[in-house]
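Hello again, I could really use a second opinion on something today. I've been staring at a protein lately and its backbone has me curious. Please have a think about how the structure follows from the sequence. I owe you a coffee for this, so here goes:
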Amino acid sequence: MGCFATCGKILLVVVNLFFLVIGLVLFVAGFFCKFGNDTLKTYYEGALDSLSGSLSSSGFGTVDLSSFDITEIIGTLGIAFIVSGTILLIITVFGFVGACCKVKCMLIGYCILVTLVVIAEVVFFGILFGNKEIITDEIKPSLKSSIQSDYQGLNGTNAISLAWNFVHIQVKCCGVDNYQDFTGATQWITQYPSYTIQTPLSCCKELPSSTDFSCAASPTTSNNYKDTSCFDSIWDLALGNVGLMAGIFAGMGLFQIMLIVFGICVLKDGRKNRVSSSTPHGQHARNRNRWDE
């Protein structure tokens, strides 16, 4: 086997073994996100206790948050992890076994699968930064619909209410686009003895420590995040640096192309050895059978 093909085989084995582990980690993480509320609860009980204390000091009394199930919020993320981990496992098994055991059909399948991944990444990157509305226009309506049907306010104990309150406080924003996304929400209580609130209390820059809800009843940019979009804020945090994301995608693409090239080199070297080998007929036949699998 040529030096370049040998290096390619070693690289394919090492890299795919590494990503095989990552695939397993993603699969397990997705399983816990979807089904592991009892295990995850130990990590977010402190946050629930803090929120319960804030509700009590704001005049809502004792709010029971014990029934909160975080998997209702991150379950979709869990499914994404499981699917991503499964796809990664399939690809890496093809690459690892194909390179390590010289299985021709698996190496060919590996090269095809990685090529499809590169094409998908190029298309995704083009949509992400060329016409992101294709993605956002599909996501935003469902988020706004969940607000209209399920948001209950700062003292809400269902998954939607807790999720939006948490996002408002942590990201410092209000609603999908702005506070008007909550107007008309069927379960949201806006009438209080001295106030009619215009925004959720969690949109206030400082959570009310008493029954003074003026920051939500008469919101301004100085006391409320009423016009700050949560969707855009999170989008910018995750994907806002176009140069960085372009560098990451470019690096991933070049690395994957390199893996495809090495896979082809190992394939070609195996064919050459099969044709030019001077081994006895029986051994030659065994080599041919192995590469023809």
The CA atoms of residues 280 and 286 lie 10 Å apart.
